[in-house]
Recover the amino acids of this structure.
């Protein structure tokens, strides 16, 4: 079958076109999503003032990016506590070692120093 | 097992916006009489009582402005011609009257009957003639976008018939959740055009499953690398905006967006799959979410009621709605190199058929699902047990090598 030509649209771009019902609804949906984001991710856009496709597009982009950023931040935060148990175990291990010897007054001091050093290194 | 089903690994759905079957594909009756499109007998009365016939005078942009009303009360008028009696019968006689209500301009109201000539839509009409076109694919409800798209994602709109926020607190999971939570795990992605266009489902799915989402650029990349998920849902660009590559013209075909931009987009999706290593393993469904208030002549049939009812107040018609009638007919085309050219399907489908098909094909049995979804027909047979040849659209014994190509 021969290659079929697909005509390109001419002069179709119009970001000043009044926003249609679908985009209005999308803006409202995103506004609801935005309200659930942490405040630092909120846009300062007043949505009743959105009248054109260009304005709606700008708002949609800002909120979609904010949602992605908020999720990325949440994922990163969730990942951070995973490291904590390691430190706790190490500290606990050192702490467990502490009472067992009870031989000299020097050793506990060394152990304390070790624990501080490890914590310091990890953080 | 038929080789088409044996090879099928990926199903892609591209859902466009707001055009009726007759408006986009009605011209094809002249080419293939099996396609139930425009005929000389069709008409709608205008407000002077004159009969207005469909004419091939549709324009790519600037004609259907204002956007034809397609909210529930307007579609009720379009389907029932303004009869609100208890014994009323659907007749598809209220389209011109409905459009007249927006501008009180008799001449302008007649444009709702216009349709595209075949040569104006080289992409959609070629795909319809070269693969499987559905004569009876209807919107899920006689209403607007959000609730109709919900049927494609959830198999129900949870009782909604409007464009308000759709809160998904009900027992029916989205098709995406069903797939990624399955054992063995399946893969699914909803590809929206870009962050400036985004997706209608963002409030329902993105908050919990950001990994379900990708951009159109990622879709292209996933096609070329052969990494499409089991199920992909692709959305067009919903607005004109400046993108990284310059001007991005809305490609959803929602009035009054440019039809040719949508043609280019459909061709681009098709080409991405056809030129990928996954072409023998992929089926693409191109479908429109609803008719957008534009004329179609086929009466939407009754259907199994959903378990929800929209109140008389919610419908705006003074009558409740039990989700027991489908919406207006829309274009739908199934594409695969295993489908014979010129296939015309006469079985009844709606958007609930999408999660029904995906579930049955990839998961087999799944519960709970909405009554509408469980009673919806599937457009791809499950690749298990005995396959009824009369229902299997991917019926060829060998892969086609004569599929069309577009210069996009």
């Amino acid at each position: 079958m021969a290659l079929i030509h697909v005509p390109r649209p001419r002069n179709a771009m119009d970001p000043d076109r009044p926003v249609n019902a679908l985009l209005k609804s999308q803006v409202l949906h995103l506004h609801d999503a935005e309200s659930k984001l942490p405040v630092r991710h909120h846009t300062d856009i007043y949505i009743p003032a959105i009248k054109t496709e260009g304005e709606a597009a700008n708002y949609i982009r800002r909120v979609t990016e904010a949602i992605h950023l908020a999720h990325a931040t949440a994922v990163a935060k969730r990942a951070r506590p995973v490291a904590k148990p390691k430190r706790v175990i190490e500290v606990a291990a050192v702490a467990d070692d502490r009472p067992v010897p009870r031989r000299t007054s020097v050793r506990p001091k060394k152990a304390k120093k070790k624990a501080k050093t490890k914590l310091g290194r990890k953080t | 097992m038929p080789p088409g089903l044996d090879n099928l690994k990926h199903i892609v759905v591209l859902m466009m916006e707001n055009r009726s079957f007759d408006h986009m594909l009605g011209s094809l009756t002249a080419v293939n009489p099996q396609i139930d499109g425009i005929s000389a007998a069709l008409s709608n009365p205008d407000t002077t009582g004159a009969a207005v016939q469909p004419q091939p005078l549709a324009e790519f942009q600037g004609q259907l402005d204002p956007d034809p009303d397609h909210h529930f009360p307007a579609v009720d008028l379009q389907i029932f011609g303004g009869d609100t009696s208890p014994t009323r019968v659907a007749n598809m006689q209220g389209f011109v009257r409905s459009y007249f209500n927006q501008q009180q301009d008799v001449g302008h109201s007649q444009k709702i009957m216009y349709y595209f000539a075949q040569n104006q839509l080289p992409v959609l009409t070629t795909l319809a003639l070269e693969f499987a076109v559905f004569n009876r694919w209807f919107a899920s409800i006689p209403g607007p976008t959000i609730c109709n798209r919900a049927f494609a994602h959830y198999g129900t709109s949870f009782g909604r018939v409007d464009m308000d926020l759709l809160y998904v607190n009900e027992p029916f999971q989205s098709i995406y959740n069903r797939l990624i939570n399955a054992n063995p795990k399946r893969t699914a992605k909803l590809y929206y055009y870009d962050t400036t266009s985004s997706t209608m489902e963002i409030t329902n799915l993105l908050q919990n499953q950001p990994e379900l989402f990708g951009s159109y650029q990622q879709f292209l990349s996933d096609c070329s690398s052969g990494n499409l998920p089991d199920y992909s849902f692709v959305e067009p660009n919903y607005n004109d905006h400046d993108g990284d590559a310059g001007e991005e013209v809305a490609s959803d075909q929602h009035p009054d967006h440019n039809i040719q931009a949508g043609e280019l987009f459909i061709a681009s999706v098709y080409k991405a799959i056809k030129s990928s290593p996954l072409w023998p393993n992929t089926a693409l469904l191109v479908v429109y979410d609803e008719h957008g208030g534009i004329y179609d002549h086929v009466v939407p049939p009754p259907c199994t009621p959903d378990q929800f009812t929209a109140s008389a107040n919610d419908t705006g018609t003074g009558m409740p709605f039990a989700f027991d009638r489908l919406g207006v007919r829309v274009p739908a085309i199934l594409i695969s190199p295993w489908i014979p050219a010129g296939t015309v399907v006469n079985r009844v489908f709606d958007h609930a058929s999408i999660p029904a098909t995906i579930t049955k094909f990839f998961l087999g049995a799944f519960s709970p699902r909405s009554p509408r979804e469980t009673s919806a027909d599937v457009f791809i047979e499950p690749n298990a047990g005995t396959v009824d040849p009369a229902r299997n659209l991917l019926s060829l014994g060998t892969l086609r090598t004569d599929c069309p190509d577009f210069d996009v």
User: Anything to note?
Assistant: Residues 112 and 294 of chain B are 5 Å apart (CA to CA). Residues 3-41+118-375 of chain B form a domain with the Alkaline Phosphatase, subunit A fold (CATH 3.40.720.10).
